[in-house]
Amino acid sequence: MAKTGMFKTQAKRILILPGDGIGPEVMSEVRRVVDWLTRKRKIAFEITERPVGGASIDAFGTPLTDDTMALALHSDAVLLGAVGGPKWDNLPFEKKPERGLLRLRKEMELFANLRPAVVFDALAEASTLKLEVVKGLDIMILRELVGGVYFGEPRGITTLPDGTRKGVNTQVYTTPEIERIARVAFDLARKRGKKVCSVEKANVMESGVLWREVVQDVHDREAKDIALSHMYADNCAMQLVRNPRQFDVIVTDNLFGDLLSDCAAMLTGSLGMLPSASLGAADAAGRRKAMYEPVHGSAPDIAGQGLANPLATLLSFGMMLRYSFDMGAEADLIERATAAVLDQGYRSADIMQPGKTKVSTTGMGDAILKALDQIG
Ligand code: IPM
Ligand code: MG
Predict the structure, then answer these.
(1) Could you say which of 66, 121, 234, 301 is catalytic?
(2) What is the pLDDT of residue 1?
């Protein structure tokens, strides 16, 4: 074990939750990069690993144990793989793997979900959209993550007197909830292209009317240096495939953010490339609770075959270094290594193109470590 004093700073306590499907395989590759940083950069990480989702259901009968929830609340950051799979699809709603993920988000109060969609030059042709539409794309979808229809009350399925049934969910946002996400949007834009597009359906939803008013108010009071526009969510979906480069930061609610970020992911060539960060409010010391996860799911159909792309999870770890640990140089290193392996022609199955070198999940990990050795 490392001697005290050998490392630059106090060990960063990371809770790793590999989850289900391809989660564990992609996480193994990220673990190798964590080890590389410890070896080569003398950065100390204290890693704890626990099951979540279906894996936790199998081990403990619940998608997230109280013990793991407490660990998440007390670690410096959480790195999650993916949850869910057909094995657990028929469980009652409250027992499903996804509930574990939603509980983590809610109890850690991770209201700000950053989903950057960046098109690496080497992958511009892998997009299903034309090269000239996506080349150089770099946008940030900021999704509100602990409110709206995902958590609104009342909710549920009831049986009516005539025997038919009624399913209800509630879309609800309060002024403070909208204000805090709007502030994050303006702060992000300030470090980027200084543009925010706020997205809702104010033409049909009162919650959307309020959303638009509050975002505009925060802008007028605190963020006059940022260009703010408003767009209806359906139009935004269309504009994302028509001309995605018109956007810089898109700020939107939980449900629209879920939809629009999947759409934005595909602009980059594959869901397998998109990382995300979910952040809470800053405490007195400026620290935020945080969880990092790839935008892709558990992909049970390809699990265990070496077909998964570990880059989204690796880039999520990079976001952890940047946002939780203020290690911009190391985060840059991970992004540069990713760009390098793509430039060198290495491709996992999801981004394979003619003439390129197809590699397995582990093969991609090997290539990343080699690139880190070269440029790090
Ligand atoms: C996501 C996922 C989740 C969501 C699921 C797995 C609950 O689609 O993170 O985008 O809907 O938020
Ligand atoms: Mg989603």
Answers:
(1) 234
(2) 45
Euclidean distance between CA atoms 66 and 83, whole angstroms:
17
329 Cα distance to chain centroid: 21
Q: Which residues contact 189 (CB under 8 A, 6 or more apart)?
A: 195, 196, 223, 226, 248, 249
What is the tens place of the pLDDT at every residue in 233-273? 999 999 999 999 999 999 999 999 999 998 998 898 888 89
296 contacts 272 by C-beta, under 8 angstroms:
yes
pLDDT at 126 over 90: no
Instruction: Examine the residue annotation and report whether 283 is marked as an active-site residue of this protein.
Output: no
Atom number of ligand 1 nearest to Cα 98: 7
Give the residue, out of 89, 103, 258, with the most ligand 1 atoms within 8 A of its beta carbon, to mutate for a pocket test.
258
| Structure confidence at residue 7 as a pLDDT band (50, 70, 90) | low
Q: How far is CA 348 from the centre of its chain?
A: 20
- Take atom 7 of ligand 1 and give the residue whose Cα is closest: 98
- Looking at the DSSP bridge assignments, the partners of residue 166 are 158
Report the separation in Å between the CA atom of 205 and the middle of ligand 2, taken as the mean of its atom positions. 22
